[in-house]
């Protein structure tokens, strides 16, 4: 099995397609793609209003072509979010889901398995970057996002890593691959300063670069708190330079081989991973033929992992039907992203597992009132909108909602 690990995508999905095709023509086909974020996941120009990218650097690139079928990835891709993505779009899928044909987003953090018999390779990932002041908060941002929420929505939370460790610890796999957009903080600090770019050298020497939460996960793997049956490979992006480190195992742990990747499919921006065929040659079927088993033990946390299964023909047929691609957002120029849509993948997952919709109740306020407020705030105040716009706001909130509800909110 050959896996293509990619650093910061920066919207250049066509370059990934070209590299996969080049490998195919060279007789060394790629079976799976792992992308470490900054994909500029803009479905339309409206999504560019909901990104932390400075306006002068905002451009559509090629994700929208991937989304609407203009281009296609020939093999599955597992994707984690970065800090240069469509914040509103990825917000719809906090537990993960398909963001384009053949592109599976891991959500805030989760793990998926590729299985062959009693062996499998586990791929765990965490999206976003580390900011110390947000680690203790919940994911409580609400659209329409202000400038602070556009950034905090992709910041690491302690709760993400708590359930990710639980997901990673289930049924020790033969091989483990971890993905993060931000580097674990121990990695840049351990690299010789002369090998670091000048722009990050001072921060790295002061221990202020990278994610302390990712570092805790690295230590858990190296010390054996999370058991695997082989060494762990860890890929990160974000820093835009190549960095290689190995964290040696302690006791019953495993070596963690870290690779920091560059950007834009440059020579230092991707790597081919070779996994022996007898380990998981058929394990790619797991992504399409198995259903994630999500086990909520705490309504404030969730655990997501694909467990080993042997699907029967009926299951394969049902899953194939569920995987049919239906774009959620239309491509009309009149599309208004402030009219927030529940993503059907998240709704279905929550209905099946009992997980809460993360944007359903915030601080005890009913989401219908929140949506009404969002709609009205986007058009100034309730008293200033015309009759049609106000009726549209009421329709968003359901039956029985009157003007007085909004008057109290405002």
Give unreliable regions as ranges.
279-310, 361-385, 403-410
Trace the largest sheet across and list its strands: 4-5-3-2-1-12
| Rg for CA atoms | 22 Å
Broad shape = globular
Largest sheet: 6 strands, mixed
In the CATH hierarchy, the third-tier topology of the largest domain is known as: Purple Acid Phosphatase, chain A, domain 2
**Multimeric state:** single chain
Number of strands: 16
> What structural class do you assign from the helix and strand content?
alpha/beta
- As a percent range, the share of strand residues is 15-25%
Q: Can you identify the CATH class of the largest domain? A: Alpha Beta
Q: How far apart lie the N and C ends?
A: 57 Å
Q: Averaging pLDDT over every residue, what do you get?
A: 78
The tally of helices reads 15
CATH hierarchy: architecture of the largest domain: 4-Layer Sandwich
Fraction of residues in H or I helices: 25-40%
Give the count of structural domains.
Answer: 2
Write the layout of secondary structure elements.
Layout: E1 2-6, H1 13-25, E2 32-35, H2 63-68, E3 77-79, H3 87-91, E4 97-100, E5 103-105, E6 109-116, E7 119-126, H4 147-152, H5 158-168, E8 175-180, H6 186-190, H7 198-205, H8 212-222, E9 232-236, E10 243-247, E11 256-260, E12 270-274, H9 277-280, H10 285-289, E13 293-294, E14 304-305, H11 313-322, H12 344-353, E15 361-362, E16 365-366, H13 367-377, H14 387-397, H15 403-409
Parallel strand pairs: 1-2, 2-3, 3-5, 7-8, 8-9, 9-11
Antiparallel strand pairs: 1-12, 4-5, 6-7, 10-11, 13-14, 15-16
Pfam family, one: Metallophos
GO molecular function: RNA lariat debranching enzyme activity
Domain Calcineurin-like phosphoesterase: 1-179
